[in-house]
Amino acid sequence: MSYRVAMDIGGTFTDVVCYDERTGAVTASKAPTTPGDLAEGVFAALGRVVHDPAAISFFVHGTTQGLNALLERKGARVLLLASRGGRDVYQIARGNRDRMFDLRYRKPAPLVPRQDVMEAGGRLDYRGQELVPLDEESVRRAARRAREEGFEAVAVCLLFSYANPAHEVRAGEILREELGDDVLVVLSHEVAREWREYERTSSAVLEAYTGPVVRRYLARIERRFAERGLAVPVHVMQSSGGLVNVSYAMRRPLQTLLSGPVGGTMGGVAASRFMSSKNAICIDMGGTSFDVSLVVNGRPDVSAEAHIEGYPVLMPVVNLHTIGAGGGSIAYTEAGALRVGPESAGAVPGPACYGRGGTRATVTDANVVLGRVDPAWFAGGLMTLDVEAAGTAIATLAEELDYDPLNLAEGICDVANAKMAQAIRTLTVEHGVEPREFALVAFGGAGAMHAALIARELGISKVVVPRFPGAFSAWGMLEADVRRDLTHPYFRSQDALDGGDMSGNLVTLEQDALDALSSQGVPEERRRVEHALDMRYEGQDYTLTIPLRDCFEPAEPEFLAEIAARYAEAHTGRYGHATPEAPVEFVRLRSTGFGSFPRTGAASAGVPDDGAPYVRDVIFDGGVHSTPVLRRSSLDGELAGPAIVVEETATTVIPPGCLATVDDNGFLIVKVNT
């Protein structure tokens, strides 16, 4: 066994990266995604880099099965079991609204209608002490209804189970005894052992809603790989940027909700090790969507909670902002104006230039008409694009708008670029982050085609295009660590803090994290644990997570002053102000276990191929420019724009006035004239 393989299944293409452990060579390829049976696209892509799956020593992949089920509202039918008197917690939700001044704002419809919520008798107090024993017969009634009415999942969320899970544990035992393995049983304290009843209920419901879809997919893909001779466990990317094996992912399917897009962020983290800048804006433009994430000081920007499709989720999640803007985004008219996306032509039929029956103009068709794509060597020669079909699609739309076709094609790209630049502002400027202080790391099949133009609009002077940008998310998965996140409720005011007790709880969490890594097959010498505290000022509702790296031990006298100062600094960074004299409270302990694997290193440029450079006319800013088209593997020295650089998985567009070089790590660095 000598190959480490990662795979990213996108809406249009399935990308694969293979690292040869003997030679250090990295190869990448892709195949069209096959929506009817994703495994077919997976094996088609895999067969282009590894001939014998038995030679694979490590395999990881990202999946969007759970996210797609949520977006398309095609998840499981869920029965929710709540505490007596708490039936309406999930329906009422929160009184606040995400978009206060949006007159058309509507809260997302609950995934579980009120008639599918049942109550269980029994009650704990806020300390987790039992007030009323669990009414087991009410749990059995819920099980009978789930069986008789064909529910696929049951979510259990009982009051104060984060403080004492005994009632939920017993309810789970009864439900599994009555329902067997045919119905997924989700216990809220296992999903999120955290306070805030509605958010914990929402998290449990989301796991129950998406879990059966994810479990079926993972079981099928693992079985298919075993049939092909894969002899090692399949690993899956988590929303937190860490890896877990399939058996754990099937037990905690919610963790995979953002599995696919997060791989690119972890690639950005890995790339930051080789760059002078440790801060990066990662942009992933595929065929369907455009994802933005941040790397700050060499670490992924991770939140302890998130809102996905308007539903709160209590779990560590890489902060991603996604919009419907990709190479397959369809251009159309609305009220006499040009619109682009979010609807996508997808993999089938795809853009008109794919020659699969698509007739509507897309961003990719616009780039073809503008000359910014090599139609004879698209995706490394795997596809030959139909230039005439692209021209017809653009001309048809241009006639509707009474535009010149070439001007319309550039307008389509400009509209898409403006939408993507605004998506970056949403994650940076709107949170007090200056994008000009970051490098723009561009990847995805279409990311490098638009990156320099997006950077120019944002005032960013440096664009980094890694090797194999079209498969960069898959490469990022190879660079990620196994990760397990553990939490423990810990409500203490600063006056009541017992440093020795806090240290003891952290030691227990650390051992639990190390044991979890051991169960994932991580050798002892490759395990480490990091701790953090969720804190707030007295009277506040929400918390900030403060890392304990390089901090005094909780039992030391200096600890309280230091951690309060760190909280004030974090509060200023987040909200623009702090109240250092105000007392703080501790709400939760967090321990994260990491299991590392040998790094692949930056992918080299490889051996120059036989593609000869040539010159073609390309449209920039309304003018025609004679532009060289070159293979990336043959680049040497500085390259002044305009230029088109093609490689196996993507195309990089270098506009006029920009300067590109290849650094020692094989990264293509584009200096943008801002």
From TrEMBL:
Q: Where is the signal peptide?
A: none
| Domain Hydantoinase/oxoprolinase N-terminal: residue ranges | 4-178
* Alphabetized InterPro entries for the sequence: ATPase_NBD, Hydant_A_N, Hydantoinase_A, Oxoprolinase-like
Describe the location of the Hydantoinase A/oxoprolinase domain by residue ranges. Answer: 200-485
Task: Report the PANTHER family cross-referenced here.
Answer: 5-OXOPROLINASE RELATED, HYPOTHETICAL 5-OXOPROLINASE (EUROFUNG)-RELATED
* UniProt name for this protein: Hydantoinase/oxoprolinase family protein
